[in-house]
Amino acid sequence: MSRYKLPALSGPSLFGRPSSRAAVGLSRRIVTYLFDCLDVYRQRRALEALDDRLLKDIGLTRCDVEAEVSRPFWR
């Protein structure tokens, strides 16, 4: 292949639209972000379910847990 064709294939496509490779990368990042948010949500619910004895064992108070659980899932 000519070395002049390679930059045109790897750069942005015509009219400023993202290439299919860029669209796949973006969609993969969005899906990964959503799964990470879901994981944070599940972890906070599991933390909320712990009793006071287990919280004391890991060095947290019920007040600490309530502050963490009340945060939005994206933070």
Written account of the structure:
The chain is mainly α and 75 residues long. The chain has a domain at 19-69. It is built from 4 helices and no strands. Helix 2 runs antiparallel to helix 4. The model has no long low-confidence stretch (mean pLDDT 82).
Q: What topology emerges from the helices and strands here?
A:
Blueprint: H1 5-10, H2 20-49, H3 52-57, H4 62-69
Descriptive tags:
single chain; 75 residues; mainly alpha; 67% helix; rod-shaped
Q: What is the 3D shape?
A: rod-shaped
Reading the helices and strands in chain order gives: HHHH
Helical residues, percent: 55-70%
State the major sheet: none
Short structural description:
The protein has 4 helices and no strands. The chain is an all-alpha fold and 75 residues long.
